[in-house]
Amino acid sequence: MLKYIAKRVALMLVVFLIIISMCFVLIKLLPNKPAEQFGKDKQLIEMRREALGYNKPLLTQYLIFLRRSLVGGDWGISESLYLGQDVWKKFMEKMPATVAVNAYTMLFSVPLGLLLGIYAALRKNRWQDHFISTAVVIFVSVPSYVYAFLVQYILCYRLRLFPFQVQSGTAFFSRQMFYSMVPAILSLGFGTVAGLTRYTRAELTEVLTSDYLLLARAKGLTRAQTTVRHALRNAMVPIFPMILGEFVGIMSGSLIIEQIFGIPGVGQLYVASITAATPDYNFFMLLSAFYTLIGLLSGIIVDVSYGFIDPRIRIGSKK
């Protein structure tokens, strides 16, 4: 198991390095804003650019980037969005908002998805199952930003239940902030609920028709007993890793939602670093590294967690 984890981590680092290297080369092909246009911050920008090797060959710049940014944690300063401010510090200031909205989304979507999936499996081939399955197909197929516009129109504009934008401030786990985040949470959670419902229904349906459950029923156990004691426990083996992966991977799905609802998180920062009149290359590189790492970690967590959840599974072992 440890050998398998080490191998996966090593492969993850290789893939991560390849992706970041491609982003670095593509960014360097774009023109930089002349330092003279920064006015009073001209000297500061020139000093930082010289430290990062902007006036040196591309390979030298790349080696400096690896040493200062990926190893040393110095991602430079903002040249557009937050002129002259440290990129890493600004990134950490924005992180709590992203963590809050994604944590709220998981608290809403995971229990609801599990309950709907269990209910659909227990009502297999009945109208309730058909209704939930049809709704799941619709919600899985529609992008989250479409839900955002519908939520804003129905709940914020027509019914006036919630504000259009998230409340300003940094108390992201307060009651008032949670209330203002509800439209964003719903927009992010619909897709997660649908995916988890579909997966839970499929796994539980398969377990409920297995031979050992039929034997348990034949020995006198009620349907409720066989479902709770045996079916749910075995069905959760592949479902629980999916929940872990969703918890890590959902952070990469809040890019557009944060922009729509005005959430001051790293997702909004990522979009702004690309769409600004003068793109902020240092922010782009840091956020590209962050979201790439999040995506790769979610895959590893899902794979490795199988062996910890079910001791019968020995990933990477040889007979």
User: Tell me, what's the shape?
Assistant: globular
Low-confidence stretches: none
User: Which whole number gives the mean pLDDT?
Assistant: 82
Beta strands, count: 0
Order of SSEs: HHHHHHHHHHHH
In which range does the helix fraction lie? Answer: over 70%
Helix tally equals 12
Helix/sheet category: mainly alpha
Proportion of strand residues: under 5%
Radius of gyration: 24 Å
Tell me about the largest β-sheet: none
CATH architecture of the domain at 96-278: Orthogonal Bundle
Written description of the protein model:
The chain is an all-alpha fold and 319 residues long. The chain has a domain at 96-278: MetI-like fold (Orthogonal Bundle). Helices cover 73% and strands 0% of the residues. Helix 6 runs parallel beside helix 10 (255-261), helix 9 packs antiparallel against helix 12 (281-309) and helix 11 runs antiparallel to helix 12 (281-309). The mean pLDDT is 82.
